[in-house]
Amino acid sequence: MLGATVWRRIVGVDRGVVIDAVEFDDEVDALVVSVRHHRRRRLRCGRCGRRSPGYDQGEGRRRWRTLDVGGLRCWVESDAPRVDCVAHGPTVCEFVWARHGAGHTRAFDDQVAWLAVHTSKTAVCELMRVAWRTVGSIVDRVVTEARAHEDPFDGLARIGIDEISRKRGYKYLTVVVDHDSGRLVWAAEGATKATLEQFFDLLGPDRAAQITHVTADAADWIAAVVADRCPNATQCADPFHMVAWATDIPGLIRFAKQERIDLDEVRRGLWREAKKTGATPMITRIKGCRYALLKNPPRLNDRQRASLAKVKRLNGALWRAYLLKEQFRAVFQLRGAAAIAALDAWLARACRSRIPQMVELSRRVRRHRTTIDATLVHGLSNALVESTNTKLRLITRMGYGFRSVDNLIALCLLDRGGYCPPLPAR
Fold this sequence. Notes:
4-stranded mixed β-sheet, 49% helix, alpha/beta, 5-stranded mixed β-sheet
């Protein structure tokens, strides 16, 4: 009949489910749709879907929350017998309209998961009339089912590894991204060797041997684990982090400091000292040049070009450091033998510059020369991983933080892992 067809579409089931009745429950102020499986679908294990003999009637009839009908809540109601599965023992039977152990239908779960990715915490909770904790459980359930149906590590060849801060107090996540598909394939709490070892334990030695390239920053803990667990992989250093080493140099020379410090705090201290002594330190002569020194030359405006000209006239060491920084940046715009030759020439100039910071930078580059050369040859970077990290920070802000790191990881995998389901009936 037409009514049964319409209600099957509302509930989100096919013709294998029989609609027995539709009633309005005054006690819960909601519609209740009574359903049952067709005979050919009865008595299957809720965990593995295997046909199994009946065990008992379980706890009687159960209800699952489904999508609202207009302004009314709607529930699906059915008997919930248990079966005696060979693999799992006494287990509640399979329901095609809901995931095992869930209190919501698949259509409801899928819509909540989609909204969790595309809207804020307040929007999904208000629209679906659920708590944020319930959203976390739904997302975890959807991702677990999706990853159980396919091997997330299948075909991995080129991966990127990085850590991201998720919370104050040195709370980090380690993430692994597939360069070929762009997917987030794994994430876990922590940023240590033990954390990364968990990924390679799941990957297994055979698939780890198939990894050909690994991109990362210069973190020693990543390099050590990759060298031990991926014998055939070529490690590539991220160009952005390499250039960042040189970008810090002009600020350090500007204030004649050997350690990495807060530039703004030093600037304020020097101004206070100048007022007390009546002296005119170098900062007063090259005031306003900070952003000109850090900005890419093609993006400089006329005022910033004039600032650079003032630096060239007043501070020779700072000007030479700036030129070396830009030459180092230009190395990563080349590829292959030309890039390696340019890096050799830069190292020769930097170690003879008599600028202590640049000499130290050249030594640091030599220590990571193997991974830098691999980057110049293969053209890989951690840009894809950094873009994923940006999205993960956005997810954290949209959720106003997460009490459970597992729910955060599940939502990250749902969005960046390619597991986000489409909206129901779309």
